């Protein structure tokens, strides 16, 4: 772990799926940002810039999903760098549940939905378990904390939750109570005592809705 290294995890802007409450994981429809999401991406770039100032060595990474790459683009432009897509930062694969709304799933599959949020080994048919998610996201996160400088990662609710729960040592059921709206920022810093959470769910002047 590189003392002073910082990793800023940002959730992507909204898509039509986000707006309608549809679950959207890796391997699904991969929608683009809608107009609101594009405006959120520009706002995120301004907030990241205000937070980091003229910090040296800023890298910008995104998941391989379109909404994350599109959200990361204005941030990368601000720092004069490109966006490096990494599949490890993709959202969880929801398999057969992809494209369904949470309301539909709670109605049609109440027991399985509860298991999904309480049992890290539960795997949706055709999808991933939270253990699968942790096993790809957490090593990538720890590698970034070992680098000099700052890494901004534009990713998804699941990977951000995974990293917060790792650093704070909390289980899946309480971790799901984290509010991480679109283009929220969550920052971690490496210290001699291990990684610390600097802040969670920062939305700047846009406010917390």
Automatic annotation (TrEMBL):
Which Pfam families does the record match to this protein? His_Phos_1 (PF00300)
Q: What is this protein called?
A: Histidine phosphatase family protein
What organism does the UniProt record list as the source? Arachnia rubra
InterPro entries named among the record's database cross-references:
His_Pase_superF_clade-1, His_PPase_superfam, PGM_Phosphatase
Source organism, top-level taxon: Bacteria
């Amino acid at each position: 772990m590189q003392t002073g290294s910082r990793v800023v995890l940002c959730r992507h802007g909204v898509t039509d799926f986000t707006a309608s409450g549809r679950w959207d994981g890796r391997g699904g429809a991969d929608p683009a940002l809608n107009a609101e999401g594009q405006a959120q991406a520009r706002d995120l770039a301004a907030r990241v810039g205000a937070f980091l100032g003229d910090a040296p060595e800023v890298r910008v990474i995104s998941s391989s999903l379109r909404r994350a790459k599109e959200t990361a683009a204005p941030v990368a432009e601000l720092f004069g760098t490109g966006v490096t897509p990494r599949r490890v930062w993709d959202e969880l694969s929801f398999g057969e549940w992809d494209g369904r709304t949470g309301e539909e799933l709670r109605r049609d599959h109440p027991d399985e939905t509860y298991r999904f949020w309480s049992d890290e080994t539960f795997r949706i048919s055709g999808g991933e378990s939270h253990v699968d998610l942790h096993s790809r996201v957490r090593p990538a996160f720890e590698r970034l904390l070992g680098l000099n400088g700052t890494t901004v990662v534009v990713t998804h609710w699941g990977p951000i939750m995974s990293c917060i729960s790792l650093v704070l040592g909390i289980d899946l059921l309480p971790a799901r109570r984290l509010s991480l709206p679109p283009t929220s920022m969550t920052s971690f810093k490496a210290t001699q005592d291990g990684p610390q959470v600097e802040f969670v769910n920062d939305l700047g002047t846009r406010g917390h809705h």
